[in-house]
Amino acid sequence: MLSLEAISKTRGADGQRYRLEIPALQLRAGRRIALIGASGSGKSTLLDLLALVLSPDPGGVQRWDDGGQCLDLAALWQQGRHDELAALRARAFGYVLQTGGLLGFLSVRGNIQLPRELLGLPVEGVVEQLAEQLGIADLLERLPGRLSVGQRQRVSIARALAHRPAIVLADEPTASLDPLNAERVMQLLVEQAAARDLCLVISTHDRALAERYGLTALQLRVEQQRDGLVTARLTEHG
Amino acid sequence: MRLALFARLAWQDYRCDARLSWCAILALAAVIAPLLVLFGLKFGLVTTLTERLERDPAVREIIPLGGARFNLQSIEALALREDVGFVIPRTRQIAATADLQGPGQMLTVEMLPTADGDPLLDGRPAPADTHAVLLSQSAAEKLGVAAGDVLQAGFGRRVAGQPQVAQASLRVQAVLPVTAFSRDALFAPLSLLEAAEDYRDGLAVPAFGWPGERPAAQRERVYPSFRLYARDLEGVESLRQYFQQSHQAVATQAEAVAQVRALSRNLAWVFWSVACLSLAGAFAALAAGTLGAVARKRHELAVLRLLGFPAVALVAFVVLQALYTGIASLLLSALLYGLAASGLNLLFQSASGEYACRLLFSHYLLAALATLLCCVLAAAAGGWRAAHLEASEGLRHV
Questions:
Q1: Å from B300 to nearest chain A CA?
Q2: Which chain A residue has the Cα nearest residue B311?
Q3: Looking at the partner chain, which of A44, A90, A100 has a beta carbon nearest the beta carbon of B307?
Q4: Alpha-carbon distance B290 to nearest alpha carbon in chain A (angstroms)
Q5: CA A12 remoteness from chain centre
Q6: Which residue, among B297, B307, B315, B390, would best test binding to A if mutated, counting the most A CBs under 10 Å from its CB?
Q7: Nearest 5 degrees, angle CA B11-CA B13-CA B19?
Q8: pLDDT digits over B259-317, tens only?
């Protein structure tokens, strides 16, 4: 579906620059990937690139092809057609942030059904069913500010799944949770991804956790270059 | 475009931020409500003064001064002018009197020509025929007659030193109230006045059966004056200028009209200078509030962008919230104005139907449009900034 070749993203000014390099990455239905790297290695940058909210450096291939729609995403970025990227994001992507990804002014129900409303999909029943599966059925009318961190994370997952996206990206979804809650959230994510045959990408610094759930590990390797440039390179973990 | 969804989201966030929203509403209402009261006072005062002038036909009367000679054509030409409301020729003043015989008493009154459209009649029908007249209230009371009565009128003349009197019986069609005309007067069709003038010139008037000389030949009647009323207050000034250009001296109330005009203009200056100052302040406060809100809500806006909302949705989010502030403050201002206006009107109550403080619906509409436009323009900068937020930037750095 989403394929990247020779994509890079450079940040920072002279003397203290950082570059993320992705030689090749394919996201296909059913793939479950763990992005593993130390804190600051650029996992979030990579997820933002995949989620189409961060523009890659010019050059390289970033393409979307789900059989129905074929888009040259690198070209869309070049031409500044942000709303077309947003439309694809709304339709095909779900994103679970580490914290604070919920809209504080909407109830749990409002948050979960928002992606469906944006696409004009019916909301009846879907929210309740998802909430049931994620164990948050009794929290639907609450505001996110009155939930625990673990509950918020589950609401976040429900929202990422609500519109049946092809790709779900999760940025350290368990980092701010206690071990018990972390296991639970991880389990839910993997279960739901498997049940829906979607492509799941989770970034984590916890390799053991990723391995326990049978995720394909991709490593971000950081190298310090001579001129102050830091490069992070995505490699298949062997 | 799912505007309804954006409007709902913006509303939910606006409601969630109730305290700040109320502050913004109160700040804007604190500008709009006093402006409404100020404008209402200006409009009410000027309207009341103008209406008083308009109600009094004497303000619109234009009286020729000095000896003048008009023929019927020149007066008919005057009647065709846009700014003339009513005009009718007058016969010589000295010939325009009648000796009326009431049940008890005899009274000499002045005769005024009248016709349909005469502002002094105040909507009453003009005399239906040459024998029908209207009396002023003072004349009717002195004579002891009322509408519907018939009285005898005598027109005296001297022929070769001998006094002669012609008689006509006249029906009182109506009595004019004292507010319309205060002196003893008889309002009659022009033909009666012309007949009296002819008779006093020693001529015969066959229509009334009065004896006298036969007119030598068909001569053109010359009128020394006319009764003229401008159509409206503007007409007073334009007619004054017209007569000045045609070297006809006239007496007008143009001065009184000009005074009200000047007051209106000066008050308008006061109002607009206050309005500009306070609106500029309100605009700056709104713009700052919107920019502040975008900075505060950077994270929420970034999340919306991440979820795939188009840029226009973020602009709508910001601009709609400014519109909510505008609408709420307008409602509040209208309420406050209503209270202030009824208080002021109670305080300055003079005559019924007159208001010290008054606004028309169109004024409300204009205020509403101006406020909402102001809100949209002030929010535009914030909206533009929101639309250009990079989603990835606001997501994590809270």
A1: 6
A2: A83
A3: A90
A4: 18
A5: 23
A6: B307
A7: 100
A8: 888 988 998 899 999 999 998 998 998 899 899 989 888 888 999 999 999 989 999 99
* Cβ-defined contact of B395 to A87 (cutoff 8 Å): no
Quote the mean pLDDT of chain B.
89
Stretches in chain B below the pLDDT threshold 70 = 1, 217, 397-398
What is the SS3 string spanning chain A? CEEEEEEEEEECCCCCEEEEEEEEEEECCCCEEEEECCCCCCHHHHHHHHCCCCCCCCCCEEEEECCCCEEEHHHHHHCCCHHHHHHHHHHHEEEECCCCCCCCCCCHHHHHHHHHHHHCCCCCCHHHHHHHHHCCHHHCCCCHHHCCHHHHHHHHHHHHHCCCCCEEEEECCCCCCCHHHHHHHHHHHHHHHHHHCCEEEEEECCHHHHHHCCCEEEEEEEEECCCCEEEEEEEECC
Q: Check B300 against A93: CB less than 8 A apart.
A: no
Given an 8 Å threshold on Cβ–Cβ distance, is A88 in contact with B308? yes
Looking at residue A60, what is its pLDDT? 87
DSSP symbol at B223:
B
ipTM: 0.91
Instruction: Please give the angle made by the CA atoms of B71, B76 and B78, to the nearest 5 degrees.
Output: 100
B12, A105: Cβ pair inside 8 Å? yes
| CB-CB under 8 Å, A103 with B305 | no
Residue A113 or residue A66, greater confidence: A113
